[in-house]
Amino acid sequence: MQNAETIWLTLPLPRHHRQPIPPNPPEAFPVRAKPERPWRQRCRCDLEFRVRSLQKARTRGRLADTGWEPAAVYAHLARLEDTAAMAGVPVHRVSAGNLRADALDPAHRFASMPLHVRNSSGAKGMIRRQCTREYKLDPIRRKVREVYEAAGRRPVEQWLGISLDEIGRMRTSDVRYITHRYPLVEQRMTRWDCQRWLDTHGWNSVPKSSCIGCPFHSDRQWRELRDNAPQEFADAVEFDRAIRSGHVQPDGKVQLLGEAYLHHTLVPLDEADLSTPEDRGQLNLFENDCQSGVCGL
Ligand code: SF4
């Protein structure tokens, strides 16, 4: 795209490594595709190309901060910002407020989290998720629009870090001035390929970005938080207790006729069974397979 404003939301790849997106995903894709050349050779000049192509394309980074990410994520973002600054690439951190504080503030209209609920009849359910749009998508869109206007309404190419495993999450843009690109899919890169790329380039402990108390956490994520960041786990436990009756509205009313929980088993987080199959004496034949593409990220 000529004279485009490029917005990247992931580590971008050099132009000469890109391939066109095939017409019929996902059936046409193999689970793991081989790179067309050996890995080391393919990525040797990566950084140089990346810096040059980003500078030419008037590239900017966008980060949506919910205010409730783990400390490891903020440390990683700081490193990303330093790296981008060395390449002369501006990075904008955007925010719609602190998600945790807003959720507990009765005076604040809150976009609901996908809390697990037991309703008054005892049935299980989940509250509709609004937080991603309000705290991530909308602030990013506002910033993209601002840059688009300031740059004389040049079309925007927005790069998104969806890997080949997640190809079902690809979407076309809902506005004409933005075109979506998926450089990792164009490169046929799975999560495992991304992990290998990061290891090779000195980024060997990249934390997963999500709110400390996100109800979408798997048991593995809760376990890692409990074992590696006990203060953050305690923060999630406290939040879990505080939202048992759901979000309180500005008029003081409680929306929920039932109970809400962060853990999918509908028990308080500090009482949830987070043990592994091995802890329970079962042999795990799957999670040790590092070729599965799900480890690391
Ligand atoms: S990480 Fe979870 S809680 Fe945070 S914005 Fe996304 S869905 Fe909502």
How many E strands? 8
Q: What amount of the residues lies in strands?
A: 5-15%
CA radius of gyration: 21 Å
Bound molecules: iron/sulfur cluster
What is the CATH fold-level name? Rossmann fold
Shape: globular
Question: Mean pLDDT, as a whole number?
Answer: 78
Q: Strand arrangement, largest sheet?
A: 3-2-1-6-7
Order of helices and strands: EHHEHEHEEHEEHHHHE
Give the end-to-end Cα distance, rounded to a whole number of Å.
31 Å
Low-confidence stretches: 8-56, 285-297
Structural class: alpha/beta
CATH class: Alpha Beta
Q: Give the number of domains.
A: 1
| CATH architecture classification | 3-Layer(aba) Sandwich
Main β sheet profile: 5 strands, parallel
Number of helical elements: 9
- Report the helical percentage: 25-40%
Describe the protein's architecture and organization.
The protein has 297 residues and is an alpha/beta fold. The chain has a single domain (5-271), classed as Rossmann fold (3-Layer(aba) Sandwich), CATH 3.40.50. It has nine helices and eight strands. It has helices spanning 39-43, 46-56, 71-86, 99-104, 131-150, 183-186, 191-200, 219-228, 230-242; strands spanning 5-8, 60-64, 91-94, 116-119, 124-126, 156-159, 178-181, 258-261. The strands form two sheets. A five-stranded parallel beta sheet has the order 3-2-1-6-7. Strand 4 and strand 5 form a beta hairpin. Helix 8 crosses helix 9 (230-242). The two termini are 31 Å apart. Residues 8-56 and 285-297 have low confidence and may be disordered. It binds iron/sulfur cluster (SF4). The site of iron/sulfur cluster has 13 residues, from helix 5.
